[in-house]
Each structure stands twice: as C-alpha cells, then as structure tokens.
Design brief:
This protein is α+β, with helices and mostly antiparallel strands. The chain is built from seven helices and five strands.
C-alpha cells in the first residue's frame, strides 16, 4: 500500500545547525504517535543532498477553495458561522495535544489547513522551538513564528503552556 505525504524542505542552513537534525528526528518519533483527525502527523525527518527535510501526512486541499486559513483570510473577513466551524475542528485537536503534554507554539493562519471536505487541520506541531533554535545560530534574539500570533509568554521568553496556544488561537 502507498500513501501520499507532504515533504517540507527546511534547507541547508537548518541541516548545518549543530543538534538540529537529531532533535528534529527525536520530535518526529514523539509526534508520530499522535492520532487525531485534525492533526498533520510527521513521519520522518532527515538530510538529503545537504538539506534538512520533514515528511508528514498529506492534507488533500479542497478543490477550488482556499487550502489554508491564511488563504481564506486573504479573501476578507469570515462570517461567524465559518469561524465557529474552524474552531470546532481546531480546539479538539489542541485539547488532544495538550492532554499529551504538547504545546503547539506556532499557531497561525498558515498552519491551519483545510482538507478536501473543508475540515480544518492543524499542521507544524512543535516546529517553532526547532526553528527558533536554528535561527539563534544565525541571529541572536531571532524569534520563530509570526509576532501577531505569539503569546506574551513567548514574546518575553518565558515558559509556554496550553494557555499560550489558546492566546495564539
């Protein structure tokens, strides 16, 4: 049996950061055990031709409609009924993550995807700490994530928890 996957190429600059790939692989092992219909789950990570990559479950986009919340918001404000439907998909996924002791830390419209039925699916679980560690190698004080969605704890360098995700959502 075959399955479709999504492949995110992180680039050579990430692959060369000391400790990045082993930590990424460790996180893949941890997150690959997750089972929730509204989560993109990683399958593998590694290095090929000098670039770091992350393979994960594939979310088939809806035909002729925006494939992410970012794309949907680009078209204008959302009606309350659509906002509610998205929250009804994403909040249970976050509750599941938090019950596993996992904080997403990178909630933003680009990380909320829509599958072919229009259901919202949360991607990039746990990527922010990895990317931030790599960014620190290039520029002291660099932050991963979009400032508009970072919680006060993240902005101030304090420990994040489930409430940080809810703030970002």
């Amino acid at each position: 049996a075959t399955r479709q996957i999504a492949l995110k190429v992180l680039g050579r600059e990430f692959a060369d950061v000391p400790g990045f790939l082993p930590y990424l692989k460790q996180q893949v092992v941890r997150y690959s055990q997750l089972q929730h219909p509204n989560l993109v789950v990683p399958y593998a990570a590694g290095r090929v031709e000098g670039a770091a990559y992350l393979a994960s479950s594939y979310v088939a986009p809806p035909r002729g409609r925006p494939d992410s919340l970012a794309a949907l918001l680009a078209a204008g404000p959302l009606p309350p009924v659509r906002v509610r439907a998205i929250l009804e998909d994403i909040v249970p996924a976050l509750e599941y993550l938090h019950a596993q002791g996992i904080v997403h830390q990178n909630l933003k419209p680009a990380n909320i995807l829509f599958n072919k039925t229009g259901q919202a699916v949360l991607s990039d679980i746990g990527m922010a700490p990895l990317l931030e560690a790599a960014l620190q190698t290039f520029s002291a004080g660099a932050r991963a994530g979009v400032f508009a969605y970072l919680s006060p704890e993240e902005l101030n360098g304090r420990k994040v928890d489930a409430l940080s995700d809810l703030y970002s959502l």
